Amino acid sequence: MQGLTRQIARHAIALVATVLLGGLLSAVLMRLAPGFDTDEQELDPHLNAASIQVLKQARIEQHNIFRYYFHSLQRAARGDLGTSLSLGQPVSTLLKERAPLTLRLVGLGLLLSWTVAMAFALSAAWLRVSAYDALTTFLSGTLLCLPAAVLALLAVLWRLPEALAIALIVFPRIYRYSRNLLDKAYSQSHILTARAKGVGELRILFWHAIPVAAPQLLAVAGVSVSIAVGAAIPVEAICGQAGIGQLAWQAALARDLPLLTNLTILVTAVTLLANSGADVIGHMLRGQEA
Amino acid sequence: MRSRRAVIWRWLACAVLLFVVGISLAANFIAPAGYARQYREVADAPPSHQHWLGTDEIGRDRFARVLYGTRISLLLAPAAALLSTLVAALVGGLAGYLGGGWARAAMAVTDLFLSLPWLFLLITVRAVMPLNVSPLVSVMVTFVMLGLLGWTSAARVLCATASSLRGSDFVRQAKASGIRGVRLFWIHVLPNLRPVLYAQFWISIPVFILSEANLGILGLGVAEPLPSWGSLLQELEGLVSVGSEPWKFVPLLLLAVVVTAFQFVLSNQEELAA
Q1: DSSP B33
Q2: Which of A178, A157, A159, A158 is nearest to A113 (CA)?
């Protein structure tokens, strides 16, 4: 129990530290970006010298990275994530509007990809027929060779649901890892002994092989969240879905750095949470086994 | 029997890669008119004797663009892979060799980069760079960025390998003989990291090819009129159905064949890199 608490605390500290460090890195990137400290509004002929001076004064805070970062953190603690330069709306409002769609797409995509990948991996491990193995490897290999954006384009052409496009991007990675993990589990001596003793294949699979591979499969689950969130960018951008991925793409094209840095920190936090969650559950499973 | 078949597949994959590289390098002779020449009288034309893969919407020969685009993608992806491997060797190799606080600090930075989805990181950093630059600068920006951001997973592997080498008998013996610091790293540690470095270099190439393709389709890659697989695949966005203009899928087919060939060539390198 104490080990688990320590594990959770370690992950929480790592999460906070990474988000803070990521935020600082984003602030530095913004400071170094070409075009920093310039404002198109200053070119407006309707503005007089005093108004331009006021605009310049408003940007003085940004000159010192640490002061700017500290003030951004203070504002973020109050729920103010700044305003998008390209869309002219508060970043927090944009996130609230778009997050549900991305969550739904990513969640459905992950559910589909895990269902298909595990069905293929388990059946390949259970059947142990080389032709079936070759077929599933060929399928996952083909999908791995295609850029995520092309799979999104094909989904548009074939009028497939967007969640299926995310599933097609994530599926081959999960399948390859889980297939390898199950292969390793099957080569363990206690499973060979069980088979020699005549234990049924299904019993071996569910009682001996899956429990051995479970902690690593959980780690793959954490990583798959990161892959799915990354896949949301091309899928939403190409399929015209107004989610976080499309917002990130639009922010990149418009060089809307305040919006993009906030999105980056949010995505980092989500992927770290998923990985930490998977790690903690894996730790609990290993504890139960011990 | 199985390993013999694997060797045959590997040689076949090598032959395919050599053929594609050779053809793309000979682009100047095969398509001397170049990738930017416009045939305005036959814009958006289907394949013909003059234009084997037809022309794009502003009349440029698609076959020539595929050849030149293949050359750019296939030459610059290894360059980016070399850059990322060098950074990984510097960060991961040195951190593993020095150990202690250095290793922890280096791995913390590595974890920060690894916690971000790859494509998210790429578009964030790409957005920081200017988008309206000359085509040549856009090629450099795209591939240097891939090289500078793609070192993290390789650095982890190298850190672990260097760390295990630090405790090995021959390094201890070298230390006892008075060899220390840079000399020890250069003469004894680095040569033993070489197989892992080679493996990481080869593994990075298909990853960077696919990343450039993703960036290109999203309009954040190589700028027009220079072709690359990413910018060529952007054409697929205008299709109304898969079967209507199948010749537009040639760049995708070529990319898939090349990445598949890399997978066959790399089948033993991945084991080495793990």
Answers
A1: T
A2: A178
Per-residue HEC secondary structure of A142-171 comes to: HHHCCCHHHHHHHHHHCCCCHHHHHHHHHH
Chain center to CA of B163? 27
Q: What is the pLDDT of residues B216-271, one digit of tens each?
A: 999 888 888 899 999 999 888 887 777 778 899 999 999 999 999 998 888 766 55
What's the distance, CA A276 to chain centroid?
A: 13
pLDDT of residue A166: 96
CB-CB neighbors (< 8 A) of B131 in chain A = 253, 255
Pick the residue with more confidence: B214 or A51? B214
Packing angle of the helix pair A130-144, B250-265 (nearest 10 deg): 120
* pLDDT number for residue A215: 84
Is the CB of residue B244 less than 8 Å away from at least one CB of chain A?
Answer: no
Calculate what percentage of chain B has a pLDDT beyond 70: 96
Where residue B54 falls (left for φ over 0; alpha for ψ -120 to 50; beta otherwise) is left
Q: Which residues of chain A make contact with B242, given a CB cutoff of 8 A?
A: 154, 157-158
- Residues A178 and A121: beta-carbon distance below 8 Å: yes
Q: Is residue B183 a contact partner of residue B191, using CB atoms and an 8 Å limit?
A: no
pLDDT grade for B273, boundaries at 50, 70 and 90: low
Q: Nearest C-alpha of chain A: how many angstroms from B227?
A: 17
| Nearest Cα residue in chain A from B121 | A264
| C-alpha triplet B23, B26, B28: angle, nearest 5° | 135
The model's pLDDT over A178-191, given as tens digits with 9 standing for 90+, comes to 998 988 888 888 88
Indicate the pLDDT class of residue B112, thresholds 50, 70 and 90: confident
Interatomic CA distance for residues B205 and B76, integer angstroms? 9
Helix (H) or strand (E) holding A245: helix A244-253
Q: Rounded to whole angstroms, how far apart are CA atoms B193 and B88?
A: 11
- Give the residue from chain A lying closest to B120, CA to CA: A230
Task: Report the alpha-carbon distance of residue B214 to residue B206 in Å, rounded.
Answer: 12
Distance CA(B119)–CA(B224), nearest Å, equals 21
Residue (of B119, B121, B184, B190) closest to B158 by Cα position: B190
- Cβ contacts of A150 on chain B, cutoff 8 Å: 213, 217, 233, 236, 252
Q: Is A90 helix (H, G, I), strand (E, B) or coil?
A: strand
DSSP symbol at B144: H
Please report the pLDDT score of residue A35 as a whole number. 65
In this predicted structure, which of A5-19, A20-34, B79-93, B145-159 has the lowest mean pLDDT? A20-34
Contact A257, A91 (CB under 8 A): no
Residue B73: what are its φ and ψ, rounded to 5°? -65, -40
ipTM of predicted complex:
0.87
pLDDT at residue A290 greater than cutoff 80: no
The reply to whether B274 touches chain A by the CB within 8 Å rule is no
